[in-house]
C-alpha cells in the first residue's frame, strides 16, 4: 500500500449471492450486482490496495437494537426447510420482498459485515471501509422487511456503535443516504434520536416515487429531542445529476455537518441515481459520486463507512463503487468535470429544505442569493419506456457512458444565459397544446387507471419494475369512458424494462369488423398526450418541441395514422386515429403496419404476457366494469394465443 494511501477496508462474501428471487431471474436485486462490483475491483487492482475481509454474520442481540423479536424470528427462520412452500406466500405479505433458501444467511452476513467494518473504523484499525453487501437495508423498518431490504444494515451498525461500544467514544453519527429512494426505515429508527443526524437525498416526485407517501418529504424533520436531526431533500423529478447533488451538498449537507461535528459517517451508498440505472431515472456520474464523497472526508477525521444499498445497472454500479474507493484511498476525487447547472426545481427544493430547518441549524438561516439560484438549467424530460429494449442494457451503458455524460452536460453548459430565456424553450408549444383536449384510447396496461396515472403523475404500480417520471402537467383526466373498436389485440416482444419478461399489448393498425378490442379512453390535453407518447417510446429526449403537434392533429383524420419520427425506434410511435367522441379526436399509439409483417414472419417474436402484466389488464377491465374477472382472463388469453 502506498505511503500516502489510507487503510481502507473492503468486505465481500460470495455467500450473499445465495439470496435471489426463485421466480424471477431478471429481478433487479440479484447476485450479479455484487459480483460485477467485485469483478471490477479485482480487475482494476483495487482489492490489492485494500484490507480485504470476509463477511461475518450479525448476532441477534445486535439486530435487536433496531428490529423487533418477531422480525428477527422471521428472517432467521425464513430459509428453513419447514417453511418450504409457504415462503412465497409469506413474502407476498410484504412490499417488494422475495425469499429463498439463502435469504437468512445473506441477511445476517449483510448486516454483520457492515457492523464489522464500522467497528474496525471506529476503533482506528481502519481509516475507512466499503461493505459490498446485499440484500440492502435502508427500507427495512423495525418490524417489516420491504423494498428488497431484510435487515437495516446501516441502522444496526449505528446503534451498535452508540449503545454497545461506549468505549470507542462514538457519540454522534452522520448517516448520509444517497440512494435514489428514500431511506424510510433508517429515518424511523432514529426519528427522535439527536445522536444521529440522518440525511437523505432522493426522488420523491411529490410522494409518487417509491416508497411513496410523505415520509420522504422535507417537512419530516424529526421530533422530540430528535427534532431537526432528520433532513430530507426530495427531488420533484428525475434526471437530477452531478450539479443537482453537489448543490445540495454545498447548500445543505456540508454546512449542517460542520455544525453537527460527527464522530463517524455511515453512508447508505445506493447507486441507483447513477447514469443508466433502470429504476432511478437520475444522472449521477462516477465523478459526481467521487466529489460527493470527497467533500465528506473533511469530517470525523475521514472515518467513513460505506454500505451498498441499491443500484441495478451492473456497469454503472461497478464504476461508481470503484470511483468511491479510489477517493477513500487517495483522498481526492477521480478525474472528471461537470459544467452543468442544477435544475430550477433543485434550487426550489433546496430553499424549502433550508427554510424548514433554519430554526435548528444556524448556517441555513440565510436565503440563497439570486445570483446563486439563477445558475440553473431547464428541465429536459427523460422517461423510462415500455419500448426500451434492454436485453443488453449494461453493454449499452458500457460503450456509451462517456458519450452519455458529454451529451447531457454539454447542452447544459451551453445554456449559461442571464435572461432566463432558456427556461422557456419548451413553454410555447406546451402552452398551446395544453388548451387542446383529445381522447387517448388505451388497450394495454393503461386500461388500469392507476397504472395510466403513472404516466401523468409519475410512480409505479404493483408488477412494474421501474417507475415513470410522469407528465409536466400532472392534472388527472377530465373524463374517462370505455368503448370497443374493430381492431385485433395481440401480444409481442419478449421483455420490457417496465414489466420484465413477457409480451406486451399491441393493437393491429388495420380495422377488422370481426375483431373487438376493449379500450379505456382518457380525456387529456394534447400536451399530456405528447408526454405519454414520449414515455411509451424512448428513454431520453429533449422535449423542446412536441412529438405530435397541431399539424399532425389536423392531418390525421384523413391520413388515419401519423408516425412520430423523432421516436421512430420506439415500439409505439405510430399514432392511430380511431374517430371522434363528443367532437374530440380519439387517438391511440401502437406499432406500424410493417411491424405486423415482422411479427408474422417470426423476425420479431410473438410472446404471451407475464402474469403481472396480464393481471394489470384484467384488473383494468374488471374495475372499468367491462368484463367479469373470468371474462377478462379469457379475453386476454385468447388475444395472447391466436396467431396473426
TrEMBL record:
Keywords: Chromatin regulator, Hydrolase, Metal-binding, Nucleus, Repressor, Transcription, Transcription regulation, Zinc. It catalyses: N(6)-acetyl-L-lysyl-[histone] + H2O = L-lysyl-[histone] + acetate. This is histone deacetylase. One of its GO terms (cellular component) is cytoplasm. Gene3D superfamilies: Gamma-glutamyl cyclotransferase-like (3.10.490.10), Histone deacetylase domain (3.40.800.20). InterPro entries: HDACs (IPR000286), His_deacetylse_dom (IPR023801), His_deacetylse_dom_sf (IPR037138), Ureohydrolase_dom_sf (IPR023696). GO terms for biological process: epigenetic regulation of gene expression; regulation of developmental process. It comes from Nicotiana sylvestris (Wood tobacco). One of its GO terms (molecular function) is histone deacetylase activity, hydrolytic mechanism. Its cofactor is Zn(2+). It is found in: Nucleus. It holds the Pfam family Hist_deacetyl. Belongs to the histone deacetylase family. HD type 2 subfamily. It is an enzyme of class 3 (hydrolase). Residues 27-328 form the Histone deacetylase domain. Its EC number is 3.5.1.98.
